[in-house]
Amino acid sequence: MLNKVVIFGVGLIGGSFARSLKKAGAVGSVVGMGRSAASLKRAQELGIIDVIGVADAGGGGCTMAEALDGADLVLLAAPVAQTEAILAALAPHLQPGTVVTDAGSTKCDVVASARRALGGKLAQFVPGHPIAGRETNGPEAAIDDLYVGKKVVLTALEENAAVDVERVAAAWRACDAIIHRLTPLEHDKVFAAVSHLPHLLAYALVDDIANKPHADLLFQYAASGFRDFTRIAGSSPEMWRDISLANRSALLTELDAYLAQLTGLRARLAAGDGAGLERVYSNAQHARHQWITAIEAAEAPPSQDKAD
Q: Which residues, at least 6 apart from 245, have a Cβ–Cβ distance to it below 8 Å?
């Protein structure tokens, strides 16, 4: 049971975390912090948070010191580019016994920000990343079952105490999530390939279509395949701008590999190499079927941690 949880960013990710903890009876009080007073007020009206805290936007509510006083856990669910500024602002008020974690989609940059902002209090920061989401934003998007059966990757630091890592893990387990563990570097390489690159590609395709002189005609005939492939292009541009830049090195490596794949496919297509195209398509189909089967066959209980 967490007595008090402070959440920076009460939209889909942070708001769903609050709703999930409340549904599980795992938290006493939730304080919401953020840039938008209107969003915080709406989150309070929806019952996502109990108390509004004063952050960048100012306005009524408790101060940063009051928000952090007696807090068991702090979650940063804001865009990753804001991480260092938020940590620097809370650092003077961070008390012994309070654990800070985040929900950022990149980890090496977040850890570097934490080292600069927290200094001697770095051990109280346990980096994390819930692998869940939707293409909606704001407090209205928050749901209490977003994390059920979903992975949460913890990229614990050498400085972290085991009991602090466990507090973060236990909070996510209360949301019925499954804990996985990677290093920050492993995390960023993995998600550059399976998350960040797909988002870049989806945005690029929709932008390409939208900029064509006959875009209206093209969108008129775009059907379920186009919808499925481009679904993630409905996500927050600000968030994905920050993620792309934060994981630039790993993302460039994956993008270069994909460009090479496209060049190979173009050569086969230009040469009329049907057999070559079919080999690529068949390999992709087989790999995807295996992946889907593995997901459907997974029966690990939410309380079980996974070491990758």
A: 81
